[in-house]
Amino acid sequence: MNIEVRQPLRAQKTRYGIVDCDIHPKLTYDEMRPYLSNQWWSHLQTYGLRPRHGFAKTYPMPKITPQAARRDAWPPTGGLPGSDLAFMQQQLLDFYDMDYGIMNPLSPTGQGDQNPDFSAAMAFASNEAQVARWTSREKRLKASVVVPYENPEASKAEIKRRAGNKDYAQVFMLSRTAEAHGRRRYWPIYEAAVEAGLPVGIHVFGYSGWAMTNSGWPSFYIEEMTEHATGQAAVVASMIFEGLFEQYRDLKVVLIESGFGWLPALGWRLDKHWERMRDEVPHVRRPPSEYIREHFWVSTQPMEEAEDPDHVMDAMRWIGFDRILFASDYPHWDFDDPFLALPPSLTEQQRQMIYAGNAKKLYGLG
Amino acid sequence: MTDIKPIDCDVHPSITDIRQLLPHLEDYWRDSVEERGIGSLESSSYPPNAPITARPDFRGKNGYAATTAEELGAQVFDRWGAGTAILNCLYGVQLVYNEDMARAFHRALNDWIAKEWLDRDPRLRASIIVPMQNIEYAVDEIERCARDQRFVQVMVLAMQETPLGRRHHWPIFAAAERHGLPIGIHAGSNYRNPVTSLGWPSHYVEDYTSQAQGFQSQVTSLITEGVFAKYPKLKIVLLESGVTWLPAFLWRFSKFWRGARTEIPWVDRSPSEIVRDNFRLTIQPFDGPSDPDDVERIIDHLRSDDMLLFSSDYPHWQFDGDERMPKGIPQGLRRKILVDNPLATYDRLNSARAGA
Predict the structure, then answer these.
(1) Of A71, A267, A313, B98, most Cβ neighbours within 10 A?
(2) Does B291 touch chain A (CB under 8 A)?
């Protein structure tokens, strides 16, 4: 998955429009500073980010490359990968002739911080900075409404503040929350998202305060990466069994950077055991796989690679070709190249849907 | 299934009261049970009255499924025609916090299984239940029970205090490999961690369905930590794990291994290959799609005919009627699943047959 350093070529015309549903701009403190009060700026300087793990300056599992980035994604002008718009345009948007890109900013956005008010302040600043520094300068890019999800009322207010602004494509949460996503405490977020007509994107990572597996802490980054599918399985199960989709019938959820191969088997398992124990969850009126089929979208990256490529096609068919969104994960090391990532046996129509059609419909783009 | 005698690799004896263990406890612990009023240890992984715990028509008047070897045999051997069945007792001794109490209850439980079940029906085999609360005690218990050839496997729960591959667990794998015993990982938790990485869910159905994620974490841990580089002959059996999650899980895991294998250089081949060589799964629950053609596709995704082992999961309510094999399993695989694969997995079933 580590790609060779690639010389910048002239823009290449693709036969398909591409909407990249997972681009990571690196917001900097300088960009966020104008939108933080003096109090929170001082707090950030003094105490820093305090996610629900023990490291003050780094992550529990060291990444496999610096900043988990492609080795060629460091901007020639300096700064971190994903921090320079011109370089992102050159290396991604222009190089692949993309129609749109959905930005999903990760740290230092303060999501899941132990201090709920600080988290709200950082989310506000992240959302202001995405527009001021990115979408206002590049119309192909769309922002995500970063919400301080452990502070649901502030999240709701943040979504209302952005509602109707076409610069924002979705509400943005991380997968590892302090309670599973279906729990009632988070419902104000979903209510506001539905009212604003925005899908909710749930991107892997974040720190829940619980171990990364239900058997405690693993040792390796490879385990953390593999576990993102188990975390997302818990997200999906929780949202369904809490009855979320009976309450919010228009709610749309996008599962980002978790691949998709695991989803069909999860649906079969939930269906089987729901049938057996549905008296415990009478508010869940239909088989779980029906809620999955109606309410969930998946992004492709990291693209599933079976030993037999036809097996990936089976998984896509079971999910539905209309629910799969192309994503590159630029500028990260496990970036999927739009020219190479999709299975060759997709039909032209399926390819068009996955590259752009599904995303344009879901996000209401062009 | 009329011409061959299947080997049922996952059946569950029911214990109704902690008092059944009293004859097998040392005086101190027998007194403690009485004087402290230590309650019965059923695990909330299987609430006694929940539908999954026992199919309604398997429950007797007392609400329990088979509480004796005779009752279990009437269903598993007489009605379903199995030739051999492996008992995996799910009484919640793994949840106990006091290490010494845990050791006492594990010993008592294994002795109870030997005396009240194995002694009463020669077609029964059993797993050694081991106290993971203390690894030295766990190894001692393997050594103590392994002398009895009717114990064919070491059994631990899917959700542990720390991932199973962690190096402090390795003396257990060494002991298991030394005695030719597979490690059976059975659905269940000791509840040292919430059953999801996002905390405690609201409903039991989430608890049960999250077992599949626990199994995935254990497979990942056992391989990444290098257990099979150190113990290449060790076999792992996933019991009541569900099956259909495995192929796509291996795509993902093997892809990250290819991309980030410098982190674990002792893993010198793809996790998919290691799983096909060292892991086996019982077939109930299968958790498959409703269309038998899709079931056949999923079987194809496994890319191995050797991995599936027959099980009824008696008395858990996984199916109705008597058809224990999921619809869509190819005809040509049936004999392997019913007999050949179990015999290739459990060395001690072969020696027991030879000696019988």
Answers:
(1) A267
(2) no
Burial tier of B97 (Cβ tally within 10 Å: 0-12, 13-18, 19+): exposed
Pick the residue from chain B with its C-alpha nearest to A230: B213
* pTM score of the predicted model: 0.96
- Interface pTM, i.e. ipTM: 0.97
Q: Which helix (H) or strand (E) holds B157?
A: strand B151-159
Q: Is B164 in Cβ contact with A265 (below 8 Å)?
A: no
3-state SS, residue B200: coil
Query: How far is A218 from A267, CA to CA, in rounded Å?
Result: 26
| Subunit contact A215:B193, Cβ cutoff 8 A | yes
Sign of CA pseudo-dihedral A210, A215, A217, A221: negative
B195 touches chain A (CB under 8 A): yes
H or E, element range at B170:
helix B170-178
| CB-based contact B217 A220, cutoff 8 Å | no
Q: Which secondary structure element, helix H or strand E, spans residue B252, and what is its range?
A: helix B246-260
